[in-house]
Write a structure and sequence with these properties.
- The chain is an alpha/beta fold.
- The chain is built from eight helices and seven strands.
- It has a single domain, classed as Rossmann fold (3-Layer(aba) Sandwich), CATH 3.40.50.
- Helix 1 crosses helix 5.
- The chain binds S-adenosylmethionine.
- S-adenosylmethionine binds next to helix 4 and strand 2.
Length: about 230
Amino acid sequence: MSATETASPSSRADIGEWSKLLGREIGGLRGFVTTHRWRIVPFDRILPLFSDIKRDGADKPEVFDIGGGEGLLLFLAERAGVLSRGLSVDASENNIRVGTKALAAAGADTVELSCTSAIEEWPNRQFDAVTMIDVLHHIPPALQRAFVDEAAARVRPGGVLIYKDMADSPFWMAGANRLHDLVLARQWIHYAPIESVCAWVAEKNFSEEHEETIDRYWYRHELRVFRRPADA
Ligand SMILES: C[S@@+](CC[C@H](N)C(=O)[O-])C[C@H]1O[C@@H](n2cnc3c(N)ncnc32)[C@H](O)[C@@H]1O
């Protein structure tokens, strides 16, 4: 069964409630952004993908989330009951500090956050799934391929890389997101064309298992699931 046909483990209403819970623990402007992020990011399309990840000896996957911010995705996955353990790295010390405190207060004891912006400091092991959600456009173009290659290297044989980023077209949607990042992240972003990302992962012999373009308001999202061969 493809991920598009899989029943969602949680409704958008659930996701909204859980986001509110974490957002309340975070507080302030960051808490507000966390509370409402699900309205523009299709977590309801990403979480069902976790249910499709098979794991040897366990029914839920262990996930490595790259650029996971305050840990919202892994928190939602834990609440949805589709996570065994989750580790997230993020470049922002503040995100890690605030997120770690909020996750503890919300009782999310299977999610761990760690601060680093350097690939060399990522864990040197493999996971059932690696996720990279809305991170690549924050990475300088010269480093984008290494980010994708190293993310793929941390997927265990038979596991998946779940990738989502903002589309670089049409220009008005890409422009709206650019404005969003100028205001919230104070950063001039660099889109990685989805075709390039797919080509890089294909070179590693991963198969593209799921492809979806999702519009939420003026934001266009490109979601992909790449599976590593079981014997690679
Ligand atoms: C748009 S946010 C996405 C957060 C999270 N993935 C989500 O979807 O809720 C982008 C995140 O990437 C992080 N980031 C940027 N450059 C990074 C790097 N070199 N290594 C790790 N994280 C990075 C930022 O700190 C920020 O939290």
